[in-house]
Each structure stands twice: as structure tokens, then as C-alpha cells.
Design goal:
By secondary structure, this protein is mostly beta strands. The protein has strands at residues 4-12, 15-20, 25-29, 42-46, 49-52. 0% of the residues lie in helices and 54% in strands. It has a 5-stranded antiparallel beta sheet with strand order 3-2-1-4-5, with no helix packed on it. It is globular and about 30 Å long. The mean pLDDT is 96.
């Protein structure tokens, strides 16, 4: 499975709205994301784990 890069577009309560590089929207619980997650940050999703993209 290839890693995906997602960008945080909004944070709504306990959930983050993300969009992939292809433009596909995703909603993810903040508990699954790194603590540094904020609007505009890029997140890497690989092997069912989220981390900050460099």
C-alpha cells in the first residue's frame, strides 16, 4: 500500500476534515492524528498510521 498525503482543511470538534492530493475528502477522528495536527498541515497515511508529512 502506497503512502497517501492528505492536507487538513478544517477541524470540527473531535474530527478533522482532510483532502487528498487527488481531491478526495476524508473525515478522520483527531485521536488518530498526531498531536501537532492543525489546519493547513500535511499528513502522511501509511500502513494505517498517520504522521506529519515533511
Amino acid at each position: 500500500m502506497e503512502p497517501r498525503i492528505l492536507t487538513v482543511t478544517a477541524i470540527n470538534g473531535d474530527y478533522a476534515e482532510l483532502v487528498s492530493e487527488e481531491g478526495t475528502p476524508h473525515t478522520v477522528a483527531l485521536a488518530l492524528l498526531p498531536p501537532e495536527t492543525d489546519v493547513g498541515r500535511r499528513i502522511r497515511w501509511e500502513l494505517f498510521e498517520y504522521s506529519l508529512a515533511e
